[in-house]
Amino acid sequence: MRKTLCSVLLASAMTLSSLHIVKADDYLNGVTAFEQGDHALALSFWLPLAENGHGKAQYSLGKLYETPEYGSKPKYLEAIKWYEAAANQGVAAAQNNLGRLYAQGKGIKADRAKAVGYWRMASESNHPMAQYNLGLALFRGEGVAQNFERAVFWFHQSANNNVSGAQYALGEVYRLGLSVPVDNEVAEKWYRAAEKNGSRSAADRLAEIAKLNVEAEATQPVVEEVSPENPDTLVALEIESSDKQDDTKEVPVTEIQVTVPKPEPKPELKSKPVKTAFAESVALIGPLKDDPAFRPRKNPRGYAGIGSLLVPKPKPNPRR
Description:
mainly alpha, single chain, 0% strand
């Protein structure tokens, strides 16, 4: 009994494992058939998986119906049906494509607000194209309030995921200074990244910038600055410029005439008489020593000078 039960369980496990492997192989087989352009074969692989709730198969069916084979028309209603089924399972690519169909109004009435809602869900799942689409909606104010700062944020997220449209948009943002300071170097960096990813608009913008730079350099006058630390440079420049001017037009030696002006005679200087004033008498400030009538006044107090020049009065000699 136990052996029988174990055999049944083992067989069931093997059956489930083989079924899972077959499902995985069927999805990849459908991808190969779709890439080769055989939509009928891809449909035969994906439809059973999608009906059993396979999210990626549901998204792939939506893409198949939106991009039919050559000569047939897109089946937007079928595409929306399977995109919605995959979007409800959190498939970001299905959410992005569903948002695009709502924004364009293909197969359904246009609803930009609903499109923004799907793009927001896909952007939070780090879907690069959804981030770019959400950035555009915020930048233009379509289906959502216009917000340059949030738009630039999502442009950055998408550009870092290598979306050329977002890289070109960032170049425009930094060149024009939209919610960010003007930075031509950063703008040129994003233009070059977009050009590398095949953006023709970015290549045209870079060519335009290069042309403007050449024209600006051609019209800008060349001014040679002289450093204040070496004032002799200015003299050297003046001498050099004068030499260049002399070299432009040579003058024969025979044509040079030197005129020496005649010296004018110096005027004779006539001496003028100098009048001398003689004083009739000069009053003396004090008596002269040669005056026999001069008698010095006695010093009754014995004052002999000022400060260190004081001379003590001699004492009388009692023995004399």
